[in-house]
Write a structure and sequence with these properties.
alpha+beta, single chain, two-stranded antiparallel sheet, Double Stranded RNA Binding Domain, 4-stranded antiparallel sheet
Length: 101
């Protein structure tokens, strides 16, 4: 698991987000799992940078619409005195699912 830290000033709050980066052909796909926000790039660094930009835009728009708190709670975040605590991952597994023939 990768922790993505967006550019931050000392006084600004931060939101911990789990990021998965996958390779699809020549592209890298960065996916913020809790918020279901994705972006891509030609390298891992490009994909991570583009994801930070997409997350910033997503969070700015949710704030503007007044829906940020609802979105974070629906994603499993819990408000704490220090900000937001991410959902706790209990387990992660890869399973084999039969395809229909």
């Amino acid at each position: 698991m990768m922790t993505l830290v967006m550019q931050n000033t000392a006084a600004a709050p931060v939101l911990p987000v789990t990021v998965r980066i996958l390779r699809e052909g020549e592209a890298f796909i960065a996916h913020a799992t809790e918020l279901d926000v994705s972006s891509h790039g030609r390298s891992v660094d490009d994909a991570s940078r583009h994801l930070r930009e997409a997350l910033a835009a997503f969070l700015d728009e949710a704030t503007r619409l007044g829906t940020l708190e609802d979105i974070l709670q629906e994603a499993g975040y819990v408000r704490t005195p220090d900000g937001w605590s991410p959902p706790t991952v209990i387990a992660q597994d890869r399973v084999l699912v039969p395809l229909p023939s």
